[in-house]
Amino acid sequence: MPRIIAHLDMDAFFAAIEERNRPRLRGKPIVVGSDPKGGIGRGVVSTANYGAREYGIHSAMPISKAWELSQKAKQEGKSDVVFLSTDGRRYAETSSRIMALIAKHFDCIEQASIDEFFIDLSFLSSFEEARKNCLKLKGEIKSKEKLNCSIGIGPNKLIAKIASDFQKPNGLTLIEPDEVERFLEPLAIRKIPGIGPKTELQLCKLNIQNIKDLKKLSINDLKQLLGKWGLSLYKKARGEDDSLVGEWNEIKSIGEQETFEKDTLDSNYIYERLRILSRDVFKRFTHSEFKNFRTITIAVRMNDFETKNRSRTLDEPQNNLAALEFEAIKLLYPFFDARENPNRKPIRLIGIRIEKLSKK
Prior knowledge:
Elements: E1 5-10, H1 13-21, E2 30-33, E3 45-48, H2 50-53, H3 63-75, E4 82-84, H4 88-105, E5 109-113, E6 116-120, H5 127-145, E7 149-154, H6 157-164, E8 172-174, H7 180-184, H8 197-204, H9 211-214, H10 219-226, H11 228-236, E9 253-264, H12 267-286, E10 293-302, E11 307-318, H13 321-332, E12 347-355
Parallel strand pairs: 2-4, 7-8
Antiparallel strand pairs: 1-6, 1-7, 2-3, 5-6, 9-12, 10-11, 10-12
């Protein structure tokens, strides 16, 4: 009996929640993320709904670029884009309710992110039964949460994930084992999870545009070009993926970050922002199932986008805010002198996270 895996992906999740909760926004282009501040704002787009995507706006785009595209659309007589700040608590609460709805029907679930879930449906008798069950689940989410999702069903996690994106929004795509090759080959190489702009550029230089082109490269070609990632990519291009659906996927870290309104080397200001981020991380930690942490990591991004991560693993597990703040400040201190910042570059962003979490 082949494996049957589903990937459920909420459609434009953050923006859809805002539209659901504010009826006046229905049908309007919506961008959720940082404040654009009239085109000079910092940060990025968290989610753009499908109306905003028609203007070329997409997630992870600089918010200033999203504003520029919104103004261009406005000049063309199109609807104004609504820019909204993120509401992490509300999104997390909705995600938890969706997880509970899925868990009512299925046992083996992996929450891949706040709006993505893998479900192992191998216990069902056929792919057709899987389709019926997923249609029922889609209907229940729509009824209870007033939100749409797209689901992909395939013989493994890789195919399920690619399939969930195939007919967005509100789609359901089923790929049986004997259809995998025909489904994958025409797709652009960026459809394979893990292929980003840099890898795409490397492959395009070899005139590789789609997955069928990619399959022409031998395993040795890909290894030489991309190292260990090349070996994995060789399998992905053939639709191979043996990874299991991990029930209730384990959290590996808790972190926060902040992009400053202006690049700065004001140590008093940066230390204060780090303390606030530390307290936010610690608050999330105290509300989690974890009891201790051992590793503290900070991230510092300069004004030229050079980014450095520095970590300290403590001799003993800790569970108090004072230890977190003290170690974070020690890690940050060298960025104000020649040890980590010899050219005295202004700092654009800082982040902090705790790792090596334990429940005992």
